[in-house]
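Per-record layout

source: Azospirillum palustre
name: diguanylate cyclase
length: 385
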Amino acid sequence: MIVLDIATVLFLYQSSLLVGAAVFLFARLRDVPASGFGTLAAAFSLVGFGGVLAGFGEHAMLPKPVWTLGSLMLGVVGHGLLALGIERLRSGRLPRAWHLLAVYPLAVWIVAWVTGFHLDNQLRAAVFHLNAALCLLLAARIVTRLRRVEQLPSCRPLAAVLALSGVSFLLGAAAILFVADFVSWLAWEFFIQILGNFAVSILIYSVATDRAERKLSLMAELDSLTGIGNRRWLERMMPGHLRPGDTVFCIDLDHFKRINDRFGHAAGDTVLVAVAATLRNLKRPDDVLARMGGEEFLLFLPELRTSDALPVAERIREAIQAIPFQHQGSALGVTASIGVAQVARPGETWPDLVHAADMALYEAKRDGRNRVAHASRVPQDLVPA
């Protein structure tokens, strides 16, 4: 059996983190078209410097309370920043709960300060491993969500590597807590982490370049007037398998032909552009918005809670009605009808879901327009006009 020297492996682990930080910093300085590279560079740097600090401490170059608590906190914050950087890569912005990144490490620091658990090598290492496992598995989940929406080639291997690294840290924590001679286990675990760090750096960079290349190819699939996707783009963006909670809104502007006939097609185009901008601002990062043609839009909302479907649709309807349209001093009253359909069980198909939303839209039109209708209210023998 091959025996790995733990000191050498840890040195290489720290080196792999610092190399990864350099890759992300290089990407950020080169203005690679993706958010999160600065956060990811900070994440890898903090974890790497935490390992360096621990190395100095192990050689008695620093007081034990300083290096034990310092290395632990750098690891906790660094791995938290890793998950945050992946989320920024996915959505381009900070998540709503980003402030937990400050609260959670502070709680760990207070517990360590009060109990002194960080002075126990076994407990400190277990906490470090469990935190790393949690953050890496969360990052893998975020990449999986990105793959569902954008279907980039690098997403699947990136999610797999992040998940494998998380499981490796989880097994390392178990070895620390339940195996008497766990050092040899840790040597193999950190060897896996070294490979994972290099793979994560390469694959995250690949995700950004895949996204840039895809944006170029999508230019032909964007609606030239509103700047959102067209029908062809929508078909390519849809996930292969629908899940319970996946929701479709069919949104159609009421009496749009009257606007074109009375005020001209230029005014109608202005209305379409403004409505598209409103929908784009209201949707979540994972939602898919497309213009289906004419005055009809489609919004796909993956994994939307059932209780949120109608309230979200109502907010969209109210937002469209509230757009302050003016044409030569005359107010244009623009409203929309919305049909809502939601996947209730696995196995439902995309055409069936869109058809159900179309039927609901038909009912909203029939009941007076400027309203929301749910597919469950539509008789099965009713067909759209």
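summary: DSSP finds twelve helices and seven strands in the chain. The beta strands are 247-253, 288-293, 296-301, 325-327, 330-332, 336-342, 372-374.
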